[in-house]
């Protein structure tokens, strides 16, 4: 009988300890991930994206695009304007939707 009580208490103690350990390990993992430095590959990737962003802002468009790119872009825009009509094809179109007018039906 005493053995059963000891086993029951030990199982309760084990479950309480396991819950506390899981909580502490989970919390430690979150804290570790926030304070951890970036992976070198991730850091390099982010540095390249930031570098491209600054170059793009300085150039006012695509980076390292030569005169051939601009010539092809102008030809493509002219071809699209001939096919689809007038308008500025370098800007996103603005859509205007009107609210439908509903009439109440007599009951």
UniProtKB/TrEMBL annotation:
- Location of the protein in the cell: Mitochondrion; Mitochondrion inner membrane
Q: Which GO-annotated molecular functions does the record name?
A: proton transmembrane transporter activity
| SUPFAM superfamilies referenced in this protein's UniProt entry, alphabetically | Mitochondrial ATP synthase coupling factor 6
Q: Which Gene3D superfamilies match?
A: Mitochondrial ATP synthase-coupling factor 6 (1.10.246.110)
Q: Which UniProt keywords apply?
A: CF(0), Hydrogen ion transport, Ion transport, Membrane, Mitochondrion, Mitochondrion inner membrane, Transport
Q: Name one GO cellular component term.
A: mitochondrial inner membrane
One example of a Gene Ontology biological process annotation: proton motive force-driven ATP synthesis
| Keyword Membrane found | yes
Q: Which Pfam families match?
A: ATP-synt_F6 (PF05511)
Major place of localization?
mitochondrion
What family is reported? Belongs to the eukaryotic ATPase subunit F6 family.
Tell me, in a sentence or two, what this protein's role is.
Answer: Mitochondrial membrane ATP synthase (F(1)F(0) ATP synthase or Complex V) produces ATP from ADP in the presence of a proton gradient across the membrane which is generated by electron transport complexes of the respiratory chain. Subunit F6, of the mitochondrial membrane ATP synthase complex (F(1)F(0) ATP synthase or Complex V) that produces ATP from ADP in the presence of a proton gradient across the membrane which is generated by electron transport complexes of the respiratory chain. ATP synthase complex consist of a soluble F(1) head domain - the catalytic core - and a membrane F(1) domain - the membrane proton channel. These two domains are linked by a central stalk rotating inside the F(1) region and a stationary peripheral stalk.
Q: How does this protein assemble?
A: Component of the ATP synthase complex composed at least of ATP5F1A/subunit alpha, ATP5F1B/subunit beta, ATP5MC1/subunit c (homooctomer), MT-ATP6/subunit a, MT-ATP8/subunit 8, ATP5ME/subunit e, ATP5MF/subunit f, ATP5MG/subunit g, ATP5MK/subunit k, ATP5MJ/subunit j, ATP5F1C/subunit gamma, ATP5F1D/subunit delta, ATP5F1E/subunit epsilon, ATP5PF/subunit F6, ATP5PB/subunit b, ATP5PD/subunit d, ATP5PO/subunit OSCP.
Put simply, this protein is called ATP synthase-coupling factor 6, mitochondrial
Species for this entry: Lepidothrix coronata (blue-crowned manakin)
């Amino acid at each position: 009988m005493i053995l059963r009580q000891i086993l029951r208490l030990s199982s309760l103690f084990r479950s309480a300890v396991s819950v506390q350990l899981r909580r502490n390990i989970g919390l430690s993992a979150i804290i570790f991930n926030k304070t951890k430095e970036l992976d070198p590959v991730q850091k390099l990737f982010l540095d390249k994206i930031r570098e491209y962003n600054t170059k793009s802002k300085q150039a006012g468009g695509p980076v390292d695009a030569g005169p051939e790119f601009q010539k092809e872009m102008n030809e493509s825009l002219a071809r699209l304007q001939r096919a689809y009509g007038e308008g500025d094809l370098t800007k996103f179109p603005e859509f205007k939707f009107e609210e439908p007018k509903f009439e109440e039906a007599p009951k």
